[in-house]
Amino acid sequence: MLRFSANISTLFTALPVAERIQAAARAGFKAVEMQFPYDLPAATLREAAHKAGVEFVLINIPAGDFAGGERGIACLPGREAEFLRGVRLAGDYANTLGCPRVNCLAGNLPEGETPEQCWDVLVENLRLAADMLTVRGVQLLVEPLNRADNPRFILNGYPDADALLTAVGKDNLTLQYDTYHAHAGGEDVLEGLTKRLMRIGHIQFSDYPGRGAPGTGELNFPRLFRAIRNLPYEGWTGAEYLCPSPGPGDFAWTAAA
Ligand SMILES: O=C(O)C(=O)CO
């Protein structure tokens, strides 16, 4: 099934958040996602989504000092209590918003720590997070970022993410499949998505290179969208590309879907 959501952390960002939700609805989206909703009360966001007639389908767990370069704290020794506080906060927001899933950014390997130790911290943190979110009816996701953009991120490519899901061993932990990161990591996007489909909880897309709209790079989105439409996938497909002020013609790619 092919259902598009608008990531309002990358789309409509010239607007205040509540207006981004309205703008996404006017552009025809029935769902929105947001990387870090925590600057606004969850009730405010819920009211804005209800007024616009859209639903929240994905948010991230707090990821440390994101502006300062951190890409999650789930793998960081000594930050476990902070991580679990973030899981509780994300669970609270997800429940208030009626959002069915949250994504966890795994973190960058710190200088002076061994990958093995960070991996063990990540596995244990995700086991705890999966259990905490299961009782709330919220699905947990994880995604690798690509090495070129994020050279120290602990998950390099979807094979690492596959291994992580196996190590964590929780049915509530699924993959966030991002076309940009997958292609940047050298994966055939359609092949990678198809073979992992049963473990994918959410799809995000942007073109490569540049993380722009479909058609600005080298990915074949009409082929990809046709495939997602025909695959047994019940999730959402999130537009996570950089476009602060979309104009009327900027969503023409939905017609190619
Ligand atoms: O950087 C990305 O691709 C993300 O999805 C972060 O939320």
From TrEMBL:
<dbReference type="InterPro" id="IPR013022">
    <property type="entry name" value="Xyl_isomerase-like_TIM-brl"/>
</dbReference>
<keyword id="KW-0413">Isomerase</keyword>
<feature type="active site" description="Proton donor/acceptor">
    <location>
        <position position="143"/>
    </location>
</feature>
<comment type="similarity">
    <text>Belongs to the hyi family.</text>
</comment>
<dbReference type="Pfam" id="PF01261">
    <property type="entry name" value="AP_endonuc_2"/>
</dbReference>
<feature type="domain" description="Xylose isomerase-like TIM barrel">
    <location>
        <begin position="21"/>
        <end position="248"/>
    </location>
</feature>
<keyword id="KW-0670">Pyruvate</keyword>
<dbReference type="GO" id="GO:0046487">
    <property type="term" value="P:glyoxylate metabolic process"/>
</dbReference>
<dbReference type="InterPro" id="IPR026040">
    <property type="entry name" value="HyI-like"/>
</dbReference>
<dbReference type="GO" id="GO:0008903">
    <property type="term" value="F:hydroxypyruvate isomerase activity"/>
</dbReference>
<dbReference type="InterPro" id="IPR036237">
    <property type="entry name" value="Xyl_isomerase-like_sf"/>
</dbReference>
<dbReference type="InterPro" id="IPR050417">
    <property type="entry name" value="Sugar_Epim/Isomerase"/>
</dbReference>
<protein>
    <submittedName>
        <fullName>Hydroxypyruvate isomerase</fullName>
        <ecNumber>5.3.1.22</ecNumber>
    </submittedName>
</protein>
<feature type="active site" description="Proton donor/acceptor">
    <location>
        <position position="240"/>
    </location>
</feature>
